[in-house]
Backbone:
């Protein structure tokens, strides 16, 4: 052992890290690809001196030392360079001689990754695997008395509505008087959730947009994608594809200078405007695009100088009350597009969601309410926000829906649910469960990154370095040398595959329930759960 | 699957005509319930067209409570047909003291009320009596409305008819809905027997309503006191019709557009697509998914039949001027109106609504693709 020059409190061994690199000297060709690809430079070329004691038999020769040198890798142990477990080293290794393994003991790094007194920030989502949605079962299976529909052969219309829907009596009156009817969009119930241009790499964004365009124009699936708070590339704003885009405005107003200037040149209206008041991954905190990712392009679109961190305030600074935030802001946004575009707020899951919802019910312009639960993902947030803040989506959504039922407004303000949809890979089942709990549709972001682009992040705290622009897959990076690893065409292909798969699976769920022409929104008699308290809380059937 | 039979005739008919048709289709029901709606009455009630008629079952105590209640409300009995069965009920049929059909005279205080107010009050009285009956099991109220009689009971239709003596000449009607029930997912409950009635409208259905819960929640949250019950998922069909016709003042064709709207692509090609799209959006929670065939009767004595959007249940309409019938199965129609031009029989498909008006001249077929006469 080398003498320890200085042992600081944060001096860690490999054993103290969450990920331990296992390397096989025998198989290693010393090609160097692993060290080159490692996003956090957790491994470096190691030149190792090795001593062997050479003791000959007999007394003629004295025992001696044989010194050799071998080359390999060293795992760095300082917190900044701790392995994140992404496994890119394994991906590029020609001989499969290296792999990160999860430390079986709880790591010590967590006590030290606050260098400079800055708490840990990361991408990803709450580091707890699974969601309660996975436990919800679809129990109302049509049998002989009402034979099941055929998911493969019957006609289906899996569409939902986004926008304020007038109650029937009001619709008739307004129509008769030639009055204003709020704009309503008929869209696919799975929305690609808000991931900004900036949080995502240009290639990833382009891939998603291409996939969405293909789904709409070639397959007739009205899929929509939300921009997140980062503006929208100028060409897209002026293209016919804008109608597939939900523009998000949030407390930093990033990109809105560009959007406002593009207004006179827009060929199409956007699908909707989402006003972000909160985000499931970091409730009560604003957006956070760290300086690493603010390159010239991002800075230009957002209307900021490059190389500075862009933390959005937690609230809209010009608004001091719910009346202002909801009423005035929603109306202002409506005005921007001549009252032709639905505007709706998005909040993070919270025990105060009903207060917001009740305000919206009295605002004739509110086009929907999106609620993002605690399992929502993000490109960057404080670890403490991600792991400990927020409200689970299932009960929050259910409360909101039942509250609307009580008010008789369940069809007037569509609820959109997000946060952990597809967290365990069960996208369609999670979405269907939320719809039956009362959601008109669901939003998903992280699942798209995983399925359409190969994001490596996980709830075992794997990778999750979206925040510093070095995503090894080029999904959330802003460095062209890394971005080019991601082929936008391939992302688009995967987006299409994801939606086609989702569509088939959703049909496989709703057809046996006897539903095909209308989404089973609030069809709570069709679901059950084997956990008594959860069943009680969600007002669904307890089944064992 | 339950079996349905509806008939309309220029001359009053005995309910036995419809019950025999149900009996012909016996393979399709299990005797777990029979319900009957009669309107455009003949027989003893012919001359009492405007007086409200109360239909229900009662215990001896229940009749006393009824009398007290009606007296308090200042209603006087004008005519009564009470059935007090004195023999053993057929297997499965519970013993009841009274089956009461009673026409009342309006109280003088109601004389100046407008029709809407009278209709509302009649409904509220029916609901109050129903609640009273639910508290102590002393009465079950099926309808309280002018020119309407309803009878419901558990058991085989013909056995019940024999037990209650429904072939009596004082019991006749020109329009009738009858259902033979195949009990499915709900306990046998008389209130779950079709047809269902609200303010002059009645419908009956076969098949299950898979969209029951969201529809029920929507109806119950309209703030209208009549939208209660739902011992059967099919009661929602009656209430959706009521909501469409009474609250939204839309006609029967719109009922079809509410419960089974055209698909988005189809609406784009429909002459009134824009308006229908709005209707579809605003009435989204009322969309049914079948499998259902709905037959019903409007206050003007028009009979109608509609299918779900995939036409997953059978139904046929046929007859001749003066008498038409709708039947779940052809055999029911054949048994009732054998002398008809069968080539003119019509089996409505997924876009069709068939009606026979009060003049009983023809089966009218209205297709969802037809342009609307008076789009709003």
Residues:
């Amino acid at each position: 052992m080398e003498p320890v020059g200085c042992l600081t409190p944060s001096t860690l061994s490999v054993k103290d890290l969450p990920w331990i690199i296992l390397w096989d000297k025998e198989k290693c060709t010393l090609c160097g690809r692993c060290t080159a690809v490692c996003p956090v430079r957790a491994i470096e070329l190691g030149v190792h001196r090795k001593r062997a004691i050479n003791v000959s038999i007999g007394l003629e020769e004295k025992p001696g030392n044989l010194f050799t040198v071998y080359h390999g890798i060293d795992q760095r142990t300082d917190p900044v360079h701790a392995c994140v477990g992404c496994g890119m080293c394994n991906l590029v290794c020609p001989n499969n001689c290296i792999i990160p393994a999860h430390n079986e003991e709880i790591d010590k790094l967590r006590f030290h990754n606050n260098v400079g007194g800055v708490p840990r920030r990361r991408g990803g989502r709450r580091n707890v695997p699974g969601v309660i949605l996975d436990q919800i079962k679809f129990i109302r299976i049509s049998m002989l008395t009402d034979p099941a529909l055929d998911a493969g052969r019957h006609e289906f219309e899996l569409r939902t509505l986004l926008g304020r829907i007038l109650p029937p009596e009001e619709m008739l009156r307004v129509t008769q008087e030639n009055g204003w009817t709020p704009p309503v969009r008929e869209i696919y119930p799975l929305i690609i959730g808000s991931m900004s241009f900036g949080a995502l790499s240009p290639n990833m964004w382009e891939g998603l947009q291409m996939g969405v365009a293909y789904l709409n124009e070639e397959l007739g699936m009205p899929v929509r994608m939300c921009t997140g708070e980062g503006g929208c590339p100028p060409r897209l704003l002026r293209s016919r594809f804008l109608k597939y885009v939900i523009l998000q405005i949030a407390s930093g107003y990033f990109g809105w200078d560009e959007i406002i200037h593009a207004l006179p040149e827009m060929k199409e209206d956007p699908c909707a405007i989402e006003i972000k008041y909160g985000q499931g991954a970091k409730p009560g905190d604003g957006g956070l695009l760290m300086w690493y990712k603010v390159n010239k392009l991002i800075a230009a679109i957002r209307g900021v100088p490059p190389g500075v961190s862009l933390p959005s305030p937690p609230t809209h600074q010009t608004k001091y009350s719910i009346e202002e935030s909801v009423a005035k802001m929603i109306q202002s946004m409506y005005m921007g597009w001549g009252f032709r575009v639905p505007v709706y707020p998005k909040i993070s899951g919270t025990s105060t969601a009903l207060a917001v919802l009740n305000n919206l019910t009295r605002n004739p312009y509110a086009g929907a309410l999106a609620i993002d639960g605690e399992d929502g993902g993000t490109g960057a947030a404080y670890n403490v926000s991600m792991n400990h803040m927020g409200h689970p989506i299932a009960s929050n959504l259910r409360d909101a829906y039942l509250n609307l039922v009580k008010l008789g407004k369940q069809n007037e303000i569509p609820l959109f649910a997000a946060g952990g949809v597809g967290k365990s890979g069960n996208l369609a089942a999670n979405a269907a469960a939320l719809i039956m709990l009362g959601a008109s549709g669901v939003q998903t972001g992280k699942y798209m990154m995983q399925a359409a682009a190969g994001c490596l992040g996980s709830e075992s705290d794997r990778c999750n370095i979206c925040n510093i622009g070095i995503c090894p897959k080029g999904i959330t990076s802003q460095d062209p040398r890394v971005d080019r690893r991601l082929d936008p065409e391939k992302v688009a292909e995967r987006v299409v595959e994801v939606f086609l798969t989702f569509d088939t699976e959703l049909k496989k769920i709703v057809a046996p329930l006897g539903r095909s022409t209308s989404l089973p929104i609030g069809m709570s008699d069709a679901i059950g759960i084997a956990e008594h308290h959860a069943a009680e809380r969600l007002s669904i059937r307890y089944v064992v | 699957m339950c079996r349905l039979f509806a008939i309309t005739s220029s001359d009053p008919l005995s309910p036995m005509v419809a019950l025999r048709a149900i009996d012909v289709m016996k393979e399709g029901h299990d005797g777990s319930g029979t319900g009957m709606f009669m309107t455009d009455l003949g027989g003893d009630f012919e001359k009492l067209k405007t007086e409200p008629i109360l239909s229900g079952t009662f215990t001896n105590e229940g009749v006393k409570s009824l009398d007290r209640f009606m007296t308090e409300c200042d209603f006087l009995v004008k005519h009564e047909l009470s059935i007090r069965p004195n023999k053993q009920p057929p297997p499965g049929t519970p013993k009841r003291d009274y089956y009461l059909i009673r026409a009342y005279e309006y109280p003088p205080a109601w004389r100046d009320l407008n029709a809407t107010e009278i209709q509302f009050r009649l409904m509220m009285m029916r609901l109050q009596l129903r609640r009273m009956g639910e508290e102590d099991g002393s009465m079950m109220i099926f309808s309280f409305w002018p020119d309407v009689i309803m009878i419901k009971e558990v058991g085989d239709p013909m056995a019940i008819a024999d037990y209650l003596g429904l072939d009596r000449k004082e019991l006749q009607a020109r329009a009738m809905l009858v259902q033979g029930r195949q009990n499915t997912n709900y306990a046998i409950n008389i209130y779950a027997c079709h047809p269902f009635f609200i303010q002059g409208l009645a419908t009956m259905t076969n098949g299950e309503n898979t969209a029951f819960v969201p529809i029920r929640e929507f109806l119950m949250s309209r703030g209208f006191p009549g939208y209660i019950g739902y011992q059967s998922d099919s009661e929602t069909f009656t209430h959706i019709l009521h909501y469409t016709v009474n609250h939204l003042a839309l006609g029967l064709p719109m009922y079809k557009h509410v419960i089974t709207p055209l698909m988005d692509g189809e609406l784009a090609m429909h002459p009134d697509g824009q308006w229908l799209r709005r209707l579809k959006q605003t009435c989204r929670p009322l969309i049914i998914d079948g499998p259902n065939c709905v037959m019903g009767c409007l206050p003007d004595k028009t009979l109608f039949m509609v299918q779900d959007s995939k036409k997953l249940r059978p139904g046929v309409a046929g007859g001749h001027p003066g008498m038409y019938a709708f039947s779940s199965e052809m055999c029911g129609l054949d048994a009732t109106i054998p002398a008809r031009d069968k080539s003119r029989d019509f089996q409505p498909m997924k876009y069709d609504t068939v009606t026979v008006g009060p003049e009983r001249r023809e089966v009218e077929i209205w297709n969802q693709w037809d342009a609307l006469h008076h789009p709003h």
Notes: Residues 138 and 270 of chain A are 35 Å apart (CA to CA). DSSP finds 16 helices and 21 strands in chain A. Chain A touches chain B through 42 residues (CB under 8 Å). The longest helix of chain A spans residues 488-510.
